[in-house]
Every structure is written in C-alpha cells, then in structure tokens.
Design brief:
Methane Monooxygenase Hydroxylase, Chain G, domain 1, 3 domains, seven-stranded mixed β-sheet, six-stranded mixed β-sheet, 17 strands
Length: 441
C-alpha cells in the first residue's frame, strides 16, 4: 500500500526539452518533482514521488481567454429572506465581472427552470440588474434541470476558445427530477466531455454535500460550502477571480516509468490508474497561483548501481494563446547501503503532503462510519490518525500538519460528545477534504 510506505528514495529532477515559452522565462506553468526521501536503499522498495504543477500569476488586465458564464440560482421556497437577497447580490457580482467579449446568462430554478437572462454579451446592464432584483423565492428544487438549463445556455455560444462555466447555487435537497449523487455525477462527467464545467456552491446546512461535491469534481470545477448567506457575494467573487485568471487549459501530466519499475497508483485517488508503465493525469485548466499536487507510488527493484532512473515526467498544455506547450523532467535516484541515512533523508514538504492525504482518507472513512451509525468507530479513526500525526518526525511537523491534527481531534470530540455527526459538521469535513484534495487550503 502506498499509504504505509517507508520510502527510501532520492529523486534528482533534471530539466530537459523545455518549451519555447520556458526558454523565454514566461512559462504559464511550473513543473516540479520531489521524493519523499532522498536516498534509496540498495534493497529497493516502494516510494512516493510528488509531482506538482503550479500556475504562474498574471495581472488581471492581461486576461486573454473569454468567458462563457451561466449563473444558475436556486429560487426555491427555502431560499426566502436573506438567502435570496444575498443570491441576488451574488448574481450582480458575477455580472460586474463580465468584460467585453464575454458571454453571460442567468437561469433560476424551483419546480421548473426559467431563463432570466438569455446567453449573450452584456449590452444593457441596467435592464439585467432590474431582472435580477425581481427574483423571488418559491417552489421546490429541480437542481438537475437547473444545471441542464445553464448548460443549454452555454451551448448557444460554446467555443473551445472560451472558458465555459456554470456556477450553481443551492441551499436544499434536490427534490424535483433526478436527485441522486450518481445521476448528478454522471451529468457532470457528460458536461465535462463537452468542455463545460460546473462549480457548485452549497448554502446553509440542508443541501446534499455529496451531490454538490460529486457534480463539481466530475466536471472538473470548484465546490464551496457557505454557512452564512452574507458570504455569497464574496464566494462568487472568488470563483470568478479564479476563472478569469486561467493561464493554461487541456493539461496532460504524463509519468512514464522505465522498464523494471512498477507504478502502484496515486495516493488518495483510485480513479487515476497506470496503464502499463504510464500514468496520465488530465486537468481541464489551471489558474494563476493555483497548485495541483499528486503523490505517486513507485516500486523500485533492488540494485547496486549508484544512480537509477525513476521516471520521465511530461506536462503538455495549451497557453492563453492556444499554443501547445511542453515541459519535461527526467527523474533519477541515488542508492545507499546505509539504512539510517535513508531513514533520515525524509523531505519535509513531501512528508507533510503524504500526511495530509492520509488525514483526508481517515476523515472519509470516519464520515462513512458515522453515516452507518458507527460513531464510536468514526471517532476512534480520527483519534488514531491524530496520534499518528503526532508521532511523525520533527522535520515533518509544521503549521499545516498541526492544524490538520487539531481538526481531527476536534471532529472526534464533536462526534463523541454528540453521539452523531451533525449535518453542519459533516459538511465541514467534506469541504475540508475537497480543499485538501484540490490543494486549496
């Protein structure tokens, strides 16, 4: 198992065959690869390779990729009062972010779907603001149909040269039409195949966080948990800021192992698998300042050579001009016969990344147990994981891990004292896990 690896590896990352944009120092993305440990014993073993992609920040005025945006608002009865007021304000925030060359549409849903602003350029902002201000809450929650309605608006001006994004807001359970997590996840995957992504915003404590997370992840977009309605405009602004700062699209991260080595998978993500000795990780887009990090298990055979090649890593993507770019790295390792030196060679940043993934997996299991009514076991899993964190080497201990450990203990205490996992606590854990998986915390 990758999650129980005692790693003994040094990876020496050597830049090779970089793209023309890298040669000029204006690369949109930076590729980095690091080992969990810097020395591999001659006896070989299983190791964790961290591959990280980071987006370069660019000034907002240099944005070049046009936006095709559909805002889809829940206007069901449960949204009455402050919720619908703040939802209207959030829609106005989205409208303010629309620039020349962008496309904007607004869809609302209750029992049925209604297109308030058909897809098109923003020409009469005052009239659009008037229509947004007139939105009132009533009816049920046809969430599936609402997403479909937003996607239909995007299709009218769809282009691979645009960012085609639905922003979905809901505060309640989907109770009209398809409503299962599987159905919404399938819808997200279908839309992703078309080039459409769906960012989801769950408001309050009554919505289905499994459904909203699955929809966002399956369509390769973002998920937000908003406790207080007054935070909605801020969350919409954050989402639009992320979308408007996209620096690369259609990414493919390709890890190829040399003959004799075996890949065991991506720690914490069983959906990404090796095909032979090659692992391909697709990403729809990357924004400036964004980081995506993957921990990859590799079995290295015994050997006496001083250096052994571990992997070739290639990152292919389209920049904001639509040009194909490639960044490559060759990854090698040194051998040692000194077990103590190997054990002491842990790289703190990678050790922390591994610990954070293990924490996430422990929380996922705890939520599953709590859902089954096995609350004592749920709390015990969290307590055990907190203890494992505390026992990690001092080099790995940092603010990130300490905060994670505190959260594990707090969640365990909450479950123990209440005898259950409350809707609010469940949403908090699910949101933490989403943020950790996407490197957003």
């Amino acid at each position: 198992m990758v999650g129980t690896v005692k790693t003994n590896l040094t990876l020496i990352v050597v830049a090779a065959a970089c793209s023309l944009s890298m040669a000029r120092g204006t690369e949109a993305l930076k590729l980095d690869a690091k080992p969990e440990r810097s020395l591999l014993q001659i006896s070989g073993g299983e190791s964790v390779l961290q591959v990280e992609v980071r987006g370069r920040k660019t000034p907002s005025e240099k944005r070049k990729i046009p936006l095709n945006l559909a805002v889809v608002l829940d206007r069901s009865s449960s949204m009455s009062g402050q919720k619908i007021d703040q939802a209207r304000q959030a829609a106005l925030v989205a409208l303010d972010e629309i620039s020349e060359g962008d496309i904007f549409s607004l869809v609302i849903y209750s029992n049925e779907v209604e297109v308030i602003i058909p897809a098109g350029p923003v020409r009469d902002k005052a009239e659009i603001e008037k229509k947004i201000s007139a939105i009132q809450a009533r009816g049920g929650t046809a969430l599936y149909a609402g997403v479909q309605g937003g996607a239909e608006q995007l299709r009218k001006h769809f282009s691979k040269e645009k960012i085609n994004r639905v922003i979905l807001l809901s505060d309640g359970q989907a109770n009209v039409g398809p409503s299962s997590t599987e159905e919404l996840s399938k819808l997200g995957s279908t839309l992703a195949g078309e080039g459409i992504s769906v960012s989801t915003i769950g408001l309050g404590e009554s919505y289905n966080e499994d459904l909203m997370t699955a929809l966002a992840e399956s369509s390769e977009a973002n998920y937000y948990f908003v406790k207080d309605a007054e935070k909605l405009p801020e969350v919409f602004a954050d989402e639009l800021g992320t979308v408007k700062s996209v620096v690369a699209r259609n990414l493919r991260l390709i890890i190829t192992l040399p003959e004799g080595l075996e890949g065991t998978g991506v720690l914490g993500d069983e959906t990404i698998r090796f095909e032979g000795r090659t692992l391909t990780i697709p990403l729809s887009e990357m924004s400036g300042g964004q980081t995506r990090r993957f921990l990859i298990g590799v079995k290295v055979p015994p050997g006496e050579e001083k250096e052994v090649k571990i992997a070739d890593v290639r990152l292919a993507y389209l920049d904001t001009e639509g040009r194909a770019q490639n960044t490559e790295a060759a990854v090698s390792a040194r051998r040692t016969a000194d077990a103590a030196a190997s054990a002491a060679s842990v790289k703190p940043e990678v050790g922390t990344s591994v610990a954070v993934v293990r924490n996430r997996l422990a929380k996922e299991k705890a939520v599953a147990y709590a859902d089954e009514g096995r609350t004592e076991e749920a709390a015990k899993i969290l307590q055990q994981q907190a203890a494992e964190n505390a026992a990690l080497p001092a080099a790995v201990q940092n603010d990130v891990l300490r905060k994670d450990t505190d959260a594990l203990t707090r969640h365990a205490n909450t479950i123990t004292s209440a005898g259950s996992l409350s809707p609010a606590a469940r949403k908090e854990i699910k949101f933490e896990n989403y943020q950790d998986k996407m490197q957003k915390r």
